[in-house]
Amino acid sequence: MSEKSYDSNKDDDEIPTHALLKFVSNVSGPLTHVEDVKLPKPLSPISPTSRPARTNAKRGPKSVEDWIREIRKAWGNLYEVDELGKSWLAQIPAVQKLAAGKYGGRMIGSGQALQYLLNQVLTLCQHYEMENGTMEILKNFPKLKLVEIASQLGINRSYLSRRYMTKASSLLTKAFQRVIDQSI
Predict the structure, then answer these.
(1) What is the residue-level pLDDT of the chain in tens, covering all 184 positions?
(2) Treating both helix axes as pointing N-terminal to C-terminal, what angle do 109-125 and 64-76 enclose, rounded to 10 degrees?
């Protein structure tokens, strides 16, 4: 026989074709002589990749739209500290610094720090002069639903969202960015 037998002690990662053919030909019928069947080299263990869990995460600086969207999401979850802790806003150095100083040693410290900062920014924003709809959103959201705020103002919810919620979210984002820039 000119065929070489497969040596499982070889360092190469590739299984020779002749070894696979021999394995397949020996396994196709009933196994009467198990000692004659040589199994191919076992696969190397799979190593986890370094790719982040979220594949849609963008690298580099965040856009203004990303900031507004994330502030709006965090604002909507203002009373859910666990959800706030999952936000990328909770990983900002100013929030981490506050979490370590004021809420150190707690698992949900970054969520609490973000909640504290958002409440301070909301209070700060209410001192500015603005349209009544924007002010009502800043005072009442997320305690009240947008439908309830719209009914108090006598307008429909979609108009409130388009006109006033957009302004309130932008104002809150700008104020939040100023606060974290000053605290670094």
Answers:
(1) 455 554 555 555 566 666 656 655 555 455 455 455 455 555 555 555 554 455 555 566 688 899 999 999 999 999 999 999 999 999 899 898 888 888 875 667 899 999 999 999 999 998 989 999 999 999 999 999 999 999 999 999 999 999 999 999 999 999 999 998 887 6
(2) 100
- Which own/partner pairs from 86-90 qualify as long-range (CB within 8 Å, at least 24 positions apart)? 86/111, 87/114, 88/62, 89/114, 90/114
**Its pTM surpasses 0.70:** no
Compute the distance between CA of residue 95 and CA of residue 11 in angstroms, rounded to an integer.
51
